[in-house]
Give the backbone structure.
Amino acid sequence: MTHTDLPLRAQAERVIAVSAAAWRIAPVSARAVARRAPHGHVPMRALRRLQQAANRALPGRNLLAHSW
């Protein structure tokens, strides 16, 4: 299967992706960044959820945060 056998939308996305990489243009969305990220990348939304869960599990942890 060559790039000319792809549907028109896929061809357009490929052209945009190759052009963006050549011109070093940043991806348009956080999801696009996450798709391109190296192994181990954690989206901000997931980090916030993890932080909230930790705060609920350890309620006294933030009491001394001001004295650090």
